[in-house]
Amino acid sequence: MSFLQVQDVTHTYFSLQEKTTALENVSIEVEKGQFVSFLGPSGCGKTTLLSIIAGIVSPTEGRVLIEGQKPDERDRQIGYMLQQDYLFPWKTIEENILIGLHISKKLNAETKRAALHLLEKLGLYQVENKYPKELSGGMRQRAALARTLAVDPDILLLDEPFSALDYQTKLNLEDLVFNTLNSYQKTAVLVTHDIGEAIAMSDRILLFSKQPGTIHKTFAVPESLKMLTPFEARQEPEFQSLFQNIWKELNHLEQH
In this entry, which stretches build a coiled coil (predicted)? Predict the structure, then answer.
C-alpha cells in the first residue's frame, strides 16, 4: 500500500448563487520518502487538494488515506508550510519553534533540544531569543520550517513556501529544504506555479487541468536530476528539456 493515497477525490464549493467544482475524480499515489509537486493554471484546485490531504477540508466525494488512515484519524502530525511564515510576532523564535510541541503535548527536554538543534541545521545560529521582526524574510521561512519539522511530521505539505522571497534567497532555501527533507526521509507534496522549482525539487510532477482540476499529465523527473541539489539540477540539459515540455503543456492548458 502506498504511503499517501488520494482516491477519486471530487470537491465542490457551494454558495447561495452557485456551485463550483474545484476538483474532479483525482487519484494519486505517493510512496514514502517521495517528493511530488502539483503544477497547473490558477484556480485548478491545487491548494484545495493540499487542504484535503491535510484534513482541513473534507472532500465532497472520495477519500484520502495516509498509511491507511484518514488524515483526521491519525495520531501523527502533518506538517503544513505556507507562503507566509505565520510566526507569532509577540513570541521569540524559540517560543515559535516549540509551539507545535506544546500543542501536541510532546514538549520535553529531549524534543526541545532536538527542535533547537534544527535551527542550527537550518543555518540559524543564536536567534532563539530574537523576535520575528528582527529576522529577514528568508530567515523567518527557515524558522517556520524548523517549527514544522520540530513535531516530526510524517508528511510535509508545502503551499508555495518560497514565492514571496527574492530569487537568491529562494534558490538557497530550495537547496536547504531539499537536503533537509532528504536527510530526514520525509514525504513531501509541493504546490507551486514555478516549473523550475517543481523540476529541481521533485521526483514526480502532476500537471492539473483547468477548473475543475483533474490530472492532465504526470512527468517523472530523470534519475540524473534527482541525484543533484536543486541549484545543480538547474544547470543540466535534461532540466531545460523537461522545462520546455512542461511549459508547452501548461501553456496549452491556459490557452484552451
Answer: none
Residue type, 84: Q
C-alpha cell, 17: 448563487
106: number of CA atoms within 13 Å, CB side? 17
Task: Specify whether the CB–CB gap between 40 and 216 falls below 8 A.
Answer: yes
Residue 230: closest CA among 221, 241, 217, 218:
221
The dihedral through the CA atoms of 193, 35, 172, 144 has a sign that is: positive
Give the Cα-Cα-Cα angle 190, 138, 226 (nearest 5 degrees). Answer: 40
Q: Closest by alpha carbon to 139, among 182, 107, 173?
A: 173
Of residues 162, 175, 141, 159, the one with CA closest to residue 80: 159
In single-letter form, the type of residue at position 27 comes to S
Specify the pLDDT at position 75: 63
Say what the pTM is: 0.89
pLDDT of residue 231: 93
Other CB atoms within 10 A of residue 167 CB: 8
Q: Report mean pLDDT in 10-residue bins for the chain, 256 residues.
A: 91 84 93 94 89 91 91 76 86 91 86 87 86 90 87 89 82 86 89 94 94 92 93 94 95 82
* Residue 230, C-beta contacts closer than 8 angstroms, at least 6 positions apart: 171, 174, 175, 178, 197, 200, 201
For the chain, the domains span: 84-153
